[in-house]
C-alpha cells in the first residue's frame, strides 16, 4: 500500500465537512486537525498525530457525508485506504478489526453522553458537564489537579455540544466563579482569557467516571 501514501503541506485541506468520502486515512507522520463548523466559527474536535492512528473511516462504513473537515496542521504523510483495502484489512487482520470496533464503541458512548447533556433541563448542569468534558480533552492539567482552559474556546465547545448561547454560558461561568468552583488563571492577568476548573469541580461533573 506504499503507493497509496499521500503528502500534505501545512494548511492543506484533506477533506471538507459535507463532502462525500471514499477514503479513510492512517497517520504515517505529521499532524491533522479535525474541525467542525459552529456558530462562532470553527472548533477543533480532535488532533490526530500518533502513527497508525486513523480517521475518516465512517465514510467507508456508512457512506454518509464527512462530519468534519480535516486539515494538515503541519507537513503530513497519510496512507489512503479505499473500501476494498479497508474490507480486506478488517477481514484479514483481527487486531485492526478490534481497533475499529473499539473506536466505534467509544463514539457511541460519547454520543450517549452528548444526548444526555442535551436533555438536561438545568443550564448549570449542562454547562458544567460540557466544560469538564472540554477540559479533560483539551485543557492543561496543573499542579493542584485542576485544568486550565481558554474561555473563548470553552464557550464555543459548550455552544456546539449542548446548544448553550454565549449569554447563558457567561451567566453560568459567573456563578461558578462566585462559588469558587472555577477561577481565572493567574497568567491571564486582567484579560481573563483563561480559567482553571478546580479538581473538585472536575470530579463532580466528570461523566466518564459514571
Please write the string of helix (H) and strand (E) elements.
EEEEEEHEEHHHEEHHEEH
CATH C-level label of the largest domain: Mainly Alpha
Number of domains: 2
> Looking at CATH, which topology of the largest domain would you report?
Arc Repressor Mutant, subunit A
- Helix and strand composition category: alpha+beta
The CATH homologous superfamily of the largest domain: Winged helix-like DNA-binding domain superfamily/Winged helix DNA-binding domain
Any idea what the shape is?
A: elongated
Mean residue pLDDT = 83
Ranges where pLDDT stays below 50 over 5 or more residues in a row are none
Q: How many runs of DSSP E, i.e. beta strands? A: 12
Q: Percent of residues in beta strands?
A: 25-35%
Terminus-to-terminus distance: 42 Å
Question: Percent of residues in helical segments?
Answer: 40-55%
Number of continuous helical runs:
7
Oligomeric form: single chain
Query: What would you say the CATH architecture of the largest domain is?
Result: Orthogonal Bundle
Descriptive tags:
single chain, 210 residues, alpha+beta, Jelly Rolls, Arc Repressor Mutant, subunit A, four-stranded antiparallel beta sheet, 12 strands
Explain what the structure shows.
The protein has 210 residues and is an alpha+beta fold. It has helices at residues 58-61, 83-92, 94-119, 123-138, 151-162, 166-178, 199-205; strands spanning 5-8, 13-15, 24-29, 32-38, 41-48, 54-55, 69-72, 76-81, 140-141, 147-150, 182-184, 194-197. It has a 4-stranded antiparallel sheet with strand order 1-8-3-6. It has a 4-stranded antiparallel sheet with strand order 2-7-4-5. The chain has a 4-stranded antiparallel sheet with strand order 9-10-12-11. α2 (83-92) crosses α3 (94-119), α4 crosses α5 (151-162) and α4 (123-138) packs across α6. It is elongated, with a radius of gyration of 19 Å. It starts with a strand and ends in a 5-residue tail after the last helix. The mean pLDDT is 83.
